[in-house]
Amino acid sequence: MEKNNTLKSDIRTSQDLSAAPLSYTTSIGRKFKLSSIHFKADAAITETITISKDAKGGADYDTVLRSISLSAQQNYVFRPDGDEDFQSGDELKIQCTNANPPGVIYATIKLRELD
Fold first, then answer.
1. What are the residues whose beta carbons fall under 8 Å from the beta carbon of 8, sequence distance 6 or more?
2. Pick the CATH number of 2-114 from 3.30.499.10, 2.60.120.260, 3.40.50.360, 3.30.230.80
3. CB atoms within 10 A of CB 26
4. pLDDT tens digits, 37-48
5. How far is residue 81's CA from residue 22's CA, in Å, rounded to a whole number?
6. CA–CA distance, 37 with 69 (Å, rounded to integer)
7. Potential cystine with 52: which of 34, 93, 108, 113 (Cβ 3.0-4.6 Å)?
8. What is the pLDDT of residues 64-107, one digit of tens each?
9. Could you tell me if 109 and 19 are in contact, meaning their C-beta atoms sit under 8 angstroms apart?
10. Mean pLDDT in the chain?
11. Which of 38, 39, 71, 66 has its CA nearest to residue 52?
12. What are the extents of the domains in the chain?
């Protein structure tokens, strides 16, 4: 059950793709519901974004929520198709390749607190 539909503070990360690919795992440590993830690049990119649940139970239980190949795009918004609830100990992992690194990618993760 959602706690008063409480939107938590945004989590933000960025990566200069000319230096390395983006690989970021949250460290939330409590139950939450993923609302959306907003990606924005400072130039059009042709890269693959992967969004995964990093399960508390270990790698055997990790799940890819979405993998999308962008082609000369600057923006992408991920919204789960249904409820995407994370238990305490589950985390969210976002990755972006850097095969064609023209600049910086920014990510904003929006979530809601669960009881």
1. 32, 111, 112, 113
2. 2.60.120.260
3. 18
4. 999 999 999 999
5. 24
6. 16
7. 93
8. 999 999 999 999 999 998 888 999 999 999 999 999 877 899 99
9. no
10. 92
11. 66
12. 2-114
